[in-house]
Amino acid sequence: MLNHDALMTAVLELAVQARERGDHPFGALLAVDGEVVETARNRVGTDDDLTAHAELHLIRKLQRTDRLELAAKGVVYASCEPCPMCVGAMFWAGVREVRFGLSHGALNELANDKPGQTPNGFIIGAAEIGGSAHPAMRFVGPEREDEAALAHEGFWVERPLG
Predict the structure, then answer these.
(1) CB atoms inside a 10 Å sphere around CB 141
(2) What is the strand order of the sheet 35-41 is part of?
(3) Cα–Cα distance, 120 to 14 (Å, whole number)
(4) What amino acid positions are annotated as catalytic residues?
(5) Which of 61, 60, 59, 55 is closest to 41 using CA atoms?
(6) Which of 80, 85, 111, 117 has its CA 20 to 30 A from that of 155?
(7) Which long-range contacts (CB under 8 A, 24 or more apart) does 125-132 make?
(8) For residues 73 and 50, what is the distance between their CA atoms, to the nearest angstrom?
């Protein structure tokens, strides 16, 4: 059984692995009672699919292996605060708790570091979206935000956020 800190370390490593594979630097995992049930990395570049975010890929893997019911029993760890698309997918999959590293605000700052660039990204947070659902979703974070930002440093210079 892994503790919270070890699970957060694991999901931040998934983000690094995604970047090393040429994908956007995001990772996600599902843990039930401290045991990792499934992991996923962003696959936007690998799959040539702009919806292949880590959280969405995680849900797809669970569904394809007939383990989707575990989503309601565990906690999703995400290297970054999930976008609205991923919040929706996790809600419909039954996820009710998410813990994340990098905040959407910090991601927007990292992704928009070009002088004179118009900010690009969502200004609404996952907690606001998930908290307005019924039943509500719980979002905890940002956690270890400086460490979570490392996988993104310099990545977004030539790439659009998305």
Answers:
(1) 23
(2) 35-41, 27-32, 75-80, 97-102, 138-140
(3) 24
(4) 55
(5) 55
(6) 85
(7) 125/81, 126/81, 126/82, 126/83, 126/84, 126/87, 126/98, 126/100, 129/84, 129/87, 129/88, 130/87, 130/90, 130/91, 130/98
(8) 28
Query: Which position has the token pair 């490392």?
Result: 150
pLDDT tier for residue 118 given thresholds of 50, 70 and 90: low
User: What is residue 14's DSSP assignment?
Assistant: H
Please report, for residues 41, 45, 46, 52, 87, the alpha-carbon distance to residue 159 in angstroms, rounded to integers and kept in the order given. Answer: 18, 11, 15, 16, 23
Q: Which two tokens stand for residue 84?
A: 């609205």
Q: Which two tokens stand for residue 33?
A: 């009672």
pLDDT digits (tens, 9 = 90+) for 55-113: 999 999 999 999 999 999 999 999 999 999 999 999 999 999 999 999 998 998 888 76
Stretch (H or E) spanning 87: helix 84-93
Cβ pair 31, 7 in contact under 8 A: yes
CB atoms within 10 A of CB 14: 24
DSSP H or E run through 35:
strand 35-41
Angle between helices 4-20 and 54-64 (to 10 degrees): 100
